[in-house]
Amino acid sequence: MFLDYVKIFIKAGNGGNGAVSFHREKYVPNGGPDGGDGGNGGDIIFVADKDMNTLIDFKFKKHFRAENGTSGGPKNSTGKCGQHLIVKVPTGTVIRDTKSGNIIADLFDDGEEFVALKGGRGGKGNARFAHAQRQAPSFSQLGEVTEEYQITLELKTIADVGLVGFPNVGKSTLLSMLTSAKPKIANYHFTTINPNLGVVQMYDDSFVIADIPGLIEGASDGAGLGHYFLRHIERVRL
Questions:
Q1: What is the pLDDT along the chain (238 residues), one digit of tens a residue?
Q2: pTM of the model
């Protein structure tokens, strides 16, 4: 199944709370505060992967949350930082803020990374607040709580050549002749409803052809398949 448009929710990890603790040892009077800091929350990181060609992985899983940082402990023990969450998307994926529609990132190259959300900062333990005038602080700092955001993932096919034209004029047939791709071919309109990709081998070189679904007059008003798939010709060179 081909899926090129999806809305998901992402949330970075919360920061861990700082600890309130005092050093207690038999022969050490006035041991003082020793509460450790909380760990930072995990980041949300998107990574482009050339081996993916659809957003189908996001059809049923809509919420992506990084791990929270853990709270600090006694003996100046710092809490563990939350693990970053790596979210893989196909190359050519555009990430938008759903609310404003603004583009946040455009992941074009394989392996390209984008930190969408930074994890929450860990809170400071009471040992951090001790000084000459306040030698036994009985308070600590809470970790930073992060917010959840809705974003839109939009896949734009990356190819060297795009075949654009009316329905049922031979675009899929041409693709099947030039490449080893096996697109569905039939004598009726809109046989192709999703882009098909094929690779042309020329001696030691190669290039990719994309068979784009057919467009008819009035597509901008919703006729036929509409202009929904026009995004797939934005990336082609020819």
A1: 568 889 999 999 999 999 999 988 777 666 789 999 999 999 999 999 988 888 989 989 999 999 999 999 999 999 999 999 999 999 999 999 999 999 999 999 999 999 999 999 999 999 999 888 888 889 999 999 999 999 999 988 878 898 988 888 888 888 888 888 777 777 666 666 777 888 888 888 888 888 888 777 777 777 766 666 777 788 888 9
A2: 0.80
Distance CA 59, CA 155 (A): 14
Q: Which residue has the tokens 């030691």?
A: 204
Count Cβ atoms below 10 Å from residue 77 Cβ, excluding itself. Answer: 17
Integer angstrom CA distances of residue 159 from 16, 90, 189, 197: 45, 13, 24, 8
Count CB neighbours of 215 within 10 A. 20
What is d(CA 118, CA 11) in angstroms, rounded to the nearest whole number? 9
Q: Copy the structure tokens of residue 10.
A: 């992402």
End-to-end CA distance of the chain: give it in Å, rounded.
26
Beta-ladder partners of 197: 210
Alpha helix (H) residue ranges in the chain: 171-178
- Exposure of 133 by Cβ count < 10 A (0-12 exposed, 13-18 middle, 19+ buried)? exposed
